[in-house]
Design goal:
Shape: globular
Oligomer: single chain
Largest sheet: 7 strands, antiparallel
Strand content: 15-25%
Bound molecules: 2-(butylsulfanyl)adenosine
Radius of gyration: 30 Å
Number of strands: 22
């Protein structure tokens, strides 16, 4: 054998060995070889491939991170639409599902498979002759993003199926081991997720690097798959489980539970803990059992999935346009945990509202760590009878905001301290008031540092004056150092003072100053919104600016004239009047005027039409690019109107992660949809 032939044979052997050990380690969780020895095999292969570049093949284990960063993802049309399952929340609804199935299949025996429902990102992988060809996200169910390069970096996803390429060799060598046919196209579907332990590690690193932590493992997984550089994806601890062999794929078995076995034989990581149940009652038992045991797993599950086992029965049951009739999801109820109230503090908001906040011993609830929860007001504190030192139940539903739902009185020890809202503002010491008919207490001192800080932050926020780089920490510094006592002072900041601030430096100072300077040109309606007048959101600011297109005109407007404006009622009108009448506010507005901030609307004629002028927009799912509130503000600033439900009048639906029924409705009605990235682009126009 010549040197080249020898190298070729060894490369082949090494690839086979590495694949075998990858499978043992990442898929079967039964490592057979110490890491060091594995690393040596890998190193040897890397060197041989370096010396013989003509022998490099894309499916080599050395080529997991391949390809350059991309500008965006190509679109993949799914061979069979990726539907989603209907959700149920109770045992009785599962019994109803069983009744529907039986009605469709009279006098037949029906077995069910119960699986865990992974809370990740669904993906479809296509293997051609055993080699990973494409990997795509679900997208809108019909077409998704081609994220092959990113999926290749996930070690529990084999680049080559078992019984694939190696089969030829095995038979040549006379092996009689069992093999699975991998010829032709095999499509499998499953879920990519980040285990909780990996999630915590990633977040610890992000905190160290001053990057915003991910809210929960699902967002972390979704965000990672959307990264444009596969090298970065390779650094994220992603994993995958598979639960479906798409019908039509080669070597299709007769039942779903056998299909799960086939996935395993192909070297794919099949969804664990799948159980065959002879009737719906034992399926329900299984669901309820896992509801209690979900914490045993190192990854999040948000429910269980019940599927008809026979694939022939599945075919005959078919699907509606949205979901299959052969399967259903059983979602776990909002998750709750208990923890201890370490303290109750009072937070002062932008408008002076005092809010009691429970400081909790950190606890992991429904996918994220919770260390504070709002108690809303004194009435709520009393209703719950929550005291400092109490053990409480903290719950999170579908939403991310946690709430204290009850006190575990049985655990109350000694005499825990009661909490009472203070008579004076905890920040400035001024006496607080409780306006008649309201439950909230307020600090009415406009110079209160807490209010000043939050109102400057609001002034600078996206959708308002959009001062890039002016976030919470910097605003706090400016106020604490006495450099700004109101937002009007932003325009008088001195370069020398800023450079001195910790973590500022020359470059950030110049960037900040030019961002502040640029903000002077924001439209008058944005200025009006930025002032932070109670009840005046982006939309209201627009209509007011439409009717009173200058500050001078607005100052003269009476409460009556204001309430006549469409969408402006007496409450808003009163709030605007009171704000503009206050001498302190007038003084701040005068500062803005002197600085050259725009106090007049540009003339309507000839003005550029805004990106979403007159459009009705609906948001569904969570966006990675911005919070829901930011999206709303930005859409309204671009002339759009955000509503809660999709109808034929809706112009556009912005679809984030895990969209709800609004998304389906949009598809049904043929309403245009875009994702967070698309929205960003649109708003940048
Ligand atoms: S079967 C027709 N099995 O839940 C869809 N889905 O709405 C068949 N999921 O989009 C899906 N674990 O992303 C199935 N064991 C499991 C699952 C599972 C998680 C996700 C999947 C799907 C959604 C259902």
């Amino acid at each position: 054998m010549g040197a080249k032939k020898r190298a070729e044979a060894r490369i082949d052997e090494l690839r086979g060995l590495i694949r075998h050990h990858d499978r043992k380690y990442y898929v079967e969780n039964e490592p057979e070889m110490p890491d060091r020895e594995y690393d040596q095999l890998m190193m040897e292969l890397v060197e041989l491939e370096r010396d013989h570049p003509e022998l490099v093949r894309p499916d080599s284990p050395t080529r997991r991170v391949a390809g350059e960063p991309t500008e965006g993802f190509a679109t993949v049309v799914h061979s069979v639409p990726m539907l989603s399952l209907d959700n149920t929340y109770s045992a009785d609804e599962l019994r109803e599902f069983d009744a529907r199935v039986r009605k469709h299949l009279p006098d037949e025996d029906v077995d069910y498979v119960v699986e865990i429902k992974l809370d990740g990102v669904s993906v479809a992988l296509t293997y051609e002759d055993g080699v990973l060809a494409t990997g795509a996200t679900r997208g809108d169910g019909r077409r998704g993003d081609d994220v092959t390069a990113n999926l290749r970096t996930i070690r529990s996803i084999p680049l080559v199926l078992s019984g694939g390429r190696s089969r030829a060799r095995a038979s040549r060598g006379g092996s009689r081991g069992r093999t699975t046919a991998t010829a032709g196209t095999i499509e499998v579907r499953g879920e990519v997720f980040m285990p909780r332990s990996g999630f915590e590690k990633v977040n610890r690193r992000r905190k160290r690097e001053d990057a915003a932590p991910f809210v929960n493992p699902r967002n972390a997984a979704a965000g990672s798959l959307k990264l444009l550089d596969p090298r970065e994806v390779a650094e994220r601890p992603l994993e995958a489980f598979f639960y479906q062999l798409v019908p039509g794929s080669a070597g299709e078995p007769a039942t779903h539970h056998e299909a799960i076995g086939t996935l395993g034989e192909l070297g794919l990581r099949a969804v664990p803990e799948a159980a065959l149940c002879a009737d719906i009652e034992s399926a329900i038992e299984r669901c309820e059992d896992w509801q209690k045991r979900r914490r045993e797993l190192d990854f999040d599950i948000d429910g269980m999935v019940i599927k008809v086992d026979s694939l022939d029965q599945q075919r005959r049951l078919g699907a509606t346009t949205k979901s299959p009739r052969w399967g259903i999801a059983y979602k776990f109820p909002a998750q709750a945990e208990t923890t201890v109230v370490e303290d109750i503090v009072v937070q002062v908001g932008r408008t002076g509202k005092l809010t009691p906040v429970a400081i909790l011993e950190p606890v992991f609830v429904a996918g994220s760590t919770v260390s504070r929860a709002t108690l809303h007001n004194q009435d709520e504190v009393e209703r719950l009878d929550v005291r400092i030192g109490d053990t409480v139940t903290v719950e999170k539903g579908g939403e991310v905001i946690p709430k204290v739902v009850s006190v575990v009185k049985a655990k109350r020890r000694g005499r825990p301290r009661r909490f009472r809202m203070p008579d004076s503002c905890p920040v400035c010491g001024e006496e607080v008031v409780r306006p008649a008919g309201e439950v909230d207490l307020r600090c009415e001192n406009v110079a209160c540092p807490a209010q000043v800080k939050r109102s400057i932050e609001h002034f600078a926020s996206r959708g308002a004056m959009d001062v890039d780089g002016l976030g919470t920490a910097l605003v706090d510094q400016l106020v604490d150092e006495g450099l700004a006592a109101d937002y009007g002072d932003l325009y008088g900041l001195a370069r020398d003072d800023l450079v001195e601030l910790p973590r500022m430096g020359e470059r950030s100072t110049d960037n900040l100053l030019s961002a502040i300077d640029r903000s002077k040109g924001r439209p008058f309606s944005r200025v009006l919104f930025a002032l932070g007048i109670r009840h005046v959101g982006v939309r209201v600011a627009e209509v007011i600016a439409g009717r009173f297109p200058s500050m001078a005109g607005l100052r003269k407007a009476t409460e009556e004239e204001l309430s006549e404006v469409d969408e402006v009622g007496p409450v808003i009108a009163g709030s605007v009047r009171a704000f503009l009448a206050s001498p302190e506010n007038r003084r701040v507005i005068a500062k803005l005027e002197r600085a050259g901030v725009r106090m007049k609307a540009a003339r309507a004629r000839g003005a550029a039409k805004k990106a979403l002028e007159g459009k009705t927009v609906v948001l569904t799912g969570s966006l990675e690019e911005m919070t829901r509130e930011e999206a709303k503000v930005a859409i309204e600033a671009a002339g759009g109107r955000v509503t809660g439900s999709v109808s034929s009048k809706t112009d556009l639906v912005v679809v984030g992660n895990d969209p709800g029924s609004k998304y389906r409705k949009a598809l049904d009605l043929g309403v245009e949809t875009i994702d967070g990235k698309g929205l960003r682009k649109l708003l940048a126009r």
